[in-house]
Known about the structure:
With 603 residues, the chain is α/β, with parallel strands linked by helices. It has 21 helices and ten strands. Among the domains are: 19-329, ABC transporter type 1, transmembrane domain (ABC transporter transmembrane region fold); 432-503, Rossmann fold, CATH 3.40.50.
Amino acid sequence: MTVAEFVAESRYKTDRSSPRRWVLSHALRYWWLIPIVLIGAFGNAALAGAIPMLVGRAFDAINSSQPDLAAARTVAMLIVGSQLLRAALQLARNFGSELIGQRLERDARDELYAALLGKSMSFHTLQPVGDTMARATNDVREINLMLNPGFNLVIGSANFLLMPVLFAPRYSPWLVIPPLAFIVAYVWALRRYLRTLQPITQEARTAFGRLNARLTESIDGVEVVKSGAQEPAEVERFTANASAYRKAFVAQGDEEAKFLPLLLLGLTIGFGFVMALLLFRTGKLTVGDVVAYMGLLNLFSFPTFVSLWAYSQVSLGLASAARILELANRETELDENRDGHSAAVRGAIEFDHVDMSYVDGKNVLSDVSVRLEPGQTLALVGETGSGKTTMARLINRTYDVDDGAVRVDGVDVRDWNLESLRRQVSTIEQDVFLFSRSIADNIAFGRPDATREEIEQAAKDAQADGFIAALPDGYDTVIGERGVTLSGGQRQRLAIARALLTDPRILVLDDATSAIDSATEDEIQKAISRAATGRTMVLITHRLSQIRRADLIVVLKGGAIDDMGTHDELMERSPAYRRIFARLRDQNQPATRGAANPAEAGG
């Protein structure tokens, strides 16, 4: 069973044991449309088979020694009426299959999106964004096309295969032999074709995922590419991935060119024509019967030519379904723990002999033990890569420990209801993420029910109200993706406002004021100090004033605790802390205080 941080509520459970079962379980949600498709497909094929038989009757009526024009007119009217009915049935069939396909695409995308939200940060760290987007867009679209026109044409062509077998005996039992032989050979050739085609279509979908992942990575890192003058190298890599994608589709085309049913169709028509002529010479068939029979055999043209494309579409759809399921079913380390502990957080935090690693065998944290009482402030200091950020992210279970335990109010965070825990722990990081929405929506992200007055007050507390008022539409100004239209300091102030609005019991600041000038920072620190009253705070910072005020300072070195205590205690006994403090003091000199600190962002 897949473990997930977040599970979307759903009244319908899908079968994820295989791509075919998954697609079927989605399609069965709209079972009432399936009879419409089946009846429409059968009626379309039956009425298509009626045309050659009616034409045969008309041919005999006109070709007789005394032409029967009235009979011919009757046949003409029957043909017109039957085709009008056929058009209605075909419309119903196409409407049903299109509706199933569109709804399956919608439901599959919703299910995948919910599954992605439920994955842990370690999953998203390792999974390429471009490949994820390819699966969430192109692969999901392929599932729609698999249903319509893919399966729609497959069902229709299967019914066309039946008509010559059903109608041929009315002329002669011997005439069933050619269509039966064709069906047996057609099924054999089709199975062989699909077995060969399946790995090719899977490779095509995988190649597209790699191509999209590389493209997304290059666009996201375009500033780095340009600063390093690496455009030609990136173009070369993209061309190589595009060539691999092209090669996969050329291989698919090569296989489609070997499609045997095309040859079988010609042999069947020739064999059937010879047999019909022999029966005509013995007087068992009329000319009209021969015409009608050959028209029935020509019905095989539709499934033969359509299957060349339709089954490829079905194979692509199943390959896409497999890629979507692989992503949705991939195990993650964290679970939502919906039945876990849920209560108001007081703010006590304890790290009990914690070991943590991102890669097996290489600890980022080793035997870390710290205890913080409610309302206290903890400052984490250390060189880059010492584990400061990792330690902070264990509190709200962004990651889980490998050994030991992290406890909030004496309860292991793994035993907490994840939603309850995270609603009461706010984290502000140096790399602030803002959505392409209005300023007000970004501030209220954690509390969508907040009033405009509450939003504005949070902005004032974070010293963001001034620059927001200067924007064209104030709080209704829509910012660019990731907040690129704002400065670093403005983005961080919005992140602080967002955190303050949620009224957290534990507040984690990971170098959250690094891009703010010293004058603004002083005002923000006053607001944070007021907001932090009675709350537990964890600081990762380069600001000496913040470090000095901390109740407990932990010095990390290589993922382990080198020393801990108050500022005065550490200055007296810790050489490592004195070195760090001296370096930070140099960086905090007036000449450089207004600039964004380029130093570490945390381990």
